[in-house]
């Protein structure tokens, strides 16, 4: 009888330990937008892109379960601010956002750049030269906030691809986008757009709700460092060059 009670107690303790371990590693909800080549939809509804690939490998190595969803940026950003165990990527880390999230990364660098179209004014060699003109940017992005804080005249779109088409049509004078994302959108849509220059370089992260367990954030950051050291991140980058 005593042996049976001991075995039952051990079994109960083991089950309790498993339950605690499971509670410590909840399923994470990863939200993103269509922002190629970092995150973008692919055939069959699957998500792809450089940052998506990095995060898949990261969560696999860390042994943390997750789901991924593609949403409009402002909605994805708001959910990550409000819901436990949710994160949004690829998010530019800025002083204004610092306290709003817990941060995993950096995943990639992103050069903010100015693009011109067939109707763009000539003689714009640095950002200050564009102050008199209308610049298209992405609503809710760190880049648009940066330019707004500097006093530039902006026309904001809900999707960055719309800015590219507005630029070609002459509805905006210039387009501010990421060097890689802007070039990718222009090439994919065969648009006559040219890169003028880059004006700022930022780091993009997985931004997690501040209530996410700190142990999860630390584990992900530690695992990401390992991926950077063993060449896994560089190997993934080469797929998108």
Mean pLDDT figure: 91
Q: Give the beta-strand count.
A: 10
**Helical run tally:** 8
Rg, please? 22 Å
Helix content: 40-55%
Count of domains: 2
Shape summary = globular
- List the secondary-structure elements in sequence, H or E: HEEEHEHEEEHEHEHEHH
**How large a portion of the residues is in β-strands, by DSSP E?**
25-35%
Question: CATH topology of the largest domain, anyone?
Answer: D-Maltodextrin-Binding Protein, domain 2
The low-confidence parts are 1-22
How are the strands of the biggest sheet laid out side by side?
A: 4-1-5-10-6-9-7-8
**What does the main sheet amount to?**
8 strands, mixed
The second-level CATH architecture of the largest domain is 3-Layer(aba) Sandwich
The termini sit apart by 68 Å
* CATH domain class name of the largest domain: Alpha Beta
Give the name of the CATH superfamily of the largest domain: Periplasmic binding protein-like II
**In terms of structural class, how would the helical and strand content be classed?**
alpha/beta
Domain Solute-binding protein family 3/N-terminal: 33-240
Pfam families: SBP_bac_3
Protein name: ABC transporter substrate-binding protein
Signal peptide: 1-23
Structure report:
Keywords: Signal. Residues 1-23 form the signal peptide. This is ABC transporter substrate-binding protein. The protein has 241 residues and is of the alpha/beta class. Strand 7, helix 4 (142-149) and strand 8 (153-157) form a beta-alpha-beta unit. The protein folds into two domains: 28-109 and 203-238, D-Maltodextrin-Binding Protein, domain 2 (3-Layer(aba) Sandwich), CATH 3.40.190.10; 110-202, 3-Layer(aba) Sandwich (D-Maltodextrin-Binding Protein, domain 2). The chain is globular. The strands form two sheets. Strands 4-1-5-10-6-9-7-8 form an eight-stranded mixed sheet, sandwiched between helices. Strands 2-3 form a two-stranded antiparallel ribbon. The termini are far apart. It is built from eight helices and ten strands.
């Amino acid at each position: 009888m005593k042996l049976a009670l001991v075995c039952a107690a051990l079994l109960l303790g083991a089950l309790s330990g498993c339950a605690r371990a499971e509670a410590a590693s909840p399923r994470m909800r990863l939200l993103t937008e269509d922002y190629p080549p970092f995150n973008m939809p692919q055939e069959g509804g699957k998500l792809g892109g450089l940052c998506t690939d990095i995060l898949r490998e990261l969560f696999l190595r860390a042994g943390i379960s997750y789901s991924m969803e593609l949403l409009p940026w402002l909605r994805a950003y708001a959910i990550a601010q409000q819901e436990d165990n949710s994160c949004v990527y690829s998010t530019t880390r800025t002083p204004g956002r610092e306290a709003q999230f817990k941060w995993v990364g950096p995943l990639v660098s992103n050069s903010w750049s100015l693009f011109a179209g067939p109707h763009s004014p000539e003689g714009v060699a640095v950002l200050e030269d564009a102050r008199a003109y209308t610049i298209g940017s992405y609503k809710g992005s760190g880049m648009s906030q940066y330019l707004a804080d500097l006093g530039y005249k902006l026309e904001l779109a809900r999707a960055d691809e719309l800015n590219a088409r507005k630029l070609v049509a002459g509805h905006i004078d210039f387009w501010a986008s990421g060097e890689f994302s802007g070039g990718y959108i222009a090439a994919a849509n065969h648009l006559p757009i040219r890169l003028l220059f880059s004006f700022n370089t930022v780091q993009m992260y997985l931004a997690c709700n501040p209530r996410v367990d700190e142990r999860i954030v630390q584990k992900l950051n530690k695992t990401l460092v390992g991926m950077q050291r063993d060449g896994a991140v560089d190997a993934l980058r080469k797929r998108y060059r």
